[in-house]
Amino acid sequence: MDRMNPQRPNDAMQITHQEARSILTETRGFTSVEVPGTGFHYSLNPYRGCAFNCSYCYAPAFVFDDEARRNWGRWVAVKANAEHLLRTAGRKGKLRNKNVYLSTVTDPYQPIERKLQLTRACLQAMLLFPPRLLTVQTRSPLVVRDNDLFQRMTPGRIAVCMSITTDDEAVRRIFEPACAPIAKRLEAIRTVREAGIPTQASIAPLLPCNAERLADLLDPAVDWVVVSSFRDDGGEGRKTRQWAAELYREHGYGNYLHDGDEHVRQTTATLQRLLGPERVRVGKDGFDQVCRELGVDEPQLEQTSFLPVH
After folding, report:
1. H-helix or E-strand containing 300?
2. Which of 120, 128, 142, 203 is 20 to 30 Å apart from 213, CA to CA?
3. 10 Å Cβ neighbour count for 257?
4. pLDDT value at residue 36
């Protein structure tokens, strides 16, 4: 079975430490600043590689070493000097008036973060040198550990985005076997929201689901929802791992592109009907929504509108 060498439960994880040359990467394409006031200026990835090893992940396409790409999910490289580099960039003013996305090609709260606390150190650096907007993207419940730091950041300049790609645990186990259960992720992002932090659900890519049940689960947990298809991988679906395409077909869901596109259209319509069109956006428009809501004007000191209604 090829499938880009998917990780099995007993596979050993190779952890290495490296000195990175830089920690802020200017964004291009999907997350970039293409329209004034939207998008992100920098991505911030404290790690290379990701232990979650999702079947559909586009990140291996950006690994240019053939062996490392084949073994994606079995190795993580720690950027040991990430905090130092970020503080240096902050002192030089590189974060001022910039939108930062943490992270784009790794998960900042993957298992090794619990021990190393590298992401937490980066957040502490950004308390001293705050960007205009910080969006934290993860699929790990560990994110709630850093609620204390999120609350110390400039109000209205921090958002947390949780990947929640389906409502169905059976589907999650097929496509994301190494990730936390959906219920744990929902509990975590709801805890973040109840702490007064704006939140978003990233349904990227949308996996097979019951759209009405998914809407019910997301409604109390997040402020906004972004829905994305397999095509939104930076290459019209070409950067999506073939492992996901095979799983999609093998489990009777059809073609991951053609049938996936139709699933996105139908599910988005249901989510917008139940949650409201202003809360549910698609593709880049959805990822940019956080920038539009939080990253354009001067900081809003009042965050009560982001708190759940009881």
Report:
1. none
2. 142
3. 16
4. 59
Residues 6 or more apart from 301 whose CB is under 8 A from it? 155, 156
State the greatest distance between any 2 C-alpha atoms of the chain, in Å, as a whole number: 54
Q: In this structure, is the dihedral angle defined by the CA atoms of residues 103, 41, 129 and 97, taken in order, positive or negative?
A: negative
* Higher-scoring residue by pLDDT: 18, 291: 18
Q: Do residues 209 and 174 make contact, with C-beta atoms less than 8 angstroms apart? A: no
What letter represents residue 125's amino acid?
Answer: A
Helix residue ranges per DSSP H, the chain: 66-70, 82-91, 112-116, 118-128, 147-152, 169-175, 182-194, 211-218, 242-250, 258-275, 283-287, 289-294
C-alpha R_g of the chain: 18
> Could you tell me whether strands 199-203 and 224-227 are parallel, antiparallel, or unpaired per DSSP bridges?
parallel
Beta bridge partners of 137: 161
Helix, strand, coil abundance in the chain, percent, nearest 5: 40, 15, 45
Rounding to the nearest 10 degrees, give the CA dihedral for residues 149, 119, 237, 66.
180
Per the CB < 8 A criterion, the answer to whether 24 and 42 are in contact is yes
H helix or E strand, kind and range, residue 79: strand 75-79
List domains and CATH numbers for the chain.
20-45+82-296 (3.80.30.30)
Write the DSSP assignment of 257-278 as a string of letters: THHHHHHHHHHHHHHHHHH-TT
CB 179 within 8 A of CB 52: yes
Q: Is 50 exceeded by the pLDDT of residue 71? A: yes
Q: Give the residue with greater pLDDT, 298 vs 58.
A: 58
Distance CA 194, CA 188 (A): 10
pTM value? 0.89
